[in-house]
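Open question from group meeting: does this chain pack into something compact, or does most of it stay loose? Before anyone orders reagents, we agreed to write out a predicted structure and look at it together. Recording both the input and the output here so the notebook holds the full record.
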Amino acid sequence: MTRGEEIAAALARVRVRVAAAAGAAGRAPSDVRLIAVSKKMPPADVAAALAAGQQDFGENYAQELRDKRAAVDGLAAPTHAMPAPGAGPRWHFIGPLQANKVKYVAGKVALLHTVDSAELLDEIDRRAAGGVQDCLVQINVAGESRKHGVAPPDLPALLDHFALLAHVRCVGLMLIPPLGEDAEASRPHFAALRALRDAQRGHARPHVDLVHLSMGMSHDLEAAIAEGATLVRVGTAIFGERPTR
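Structure tokens returned:
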């Protein structure tokens, strides 16, 4: 089996899991978008997933995204397996973002998942001046000291800040739960994110439309979907273990 065939088969298995989890939750599979997390994987892997019908890809590092995007654009996938014209990769930035790296991301991705401060948002707004950058606010639901994200009580103020800016739009919330192999241990954090989203939906703000919940990865996507995830970020189950260097 070629590497491309391995990736296509893995994608098919993950799609079955997503569809089954959505069905079990009484949701349509189309309500959940799969993001293939391609960080540290070669551009050829992205091209293979693209050829297998995957469109959304997530990257954690701004400069890797910049370089990989250019490399993938330069690769020729088999004509018979290519998506429809215009349906190339849709990139998501899902890692911590420093202000000095915003130039590599703002206006260049479909969705930026990790806004966590007004200062970062100001820089995104400045860099996206030619259009509107869709964003998610990352929430540190568990209050982990080493993890990025806004504390839940600080979410309203950051959403208010979106309302003051012309070139950014908040379309939902994002979460990375505490590290662990037990999917059920993540469920309370997923439920808490959904509750935060639902509570803030009652406060109308310009440039804020809280549609999405970005949560769930390879080991806990079923629990995330059961709790309302609209975006799941899956890497290992599609591409295998990442290189350590």
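Observations to bring back to the group:
The chain has eight helices and eight strands.
The radius of gyration is 18 Å.
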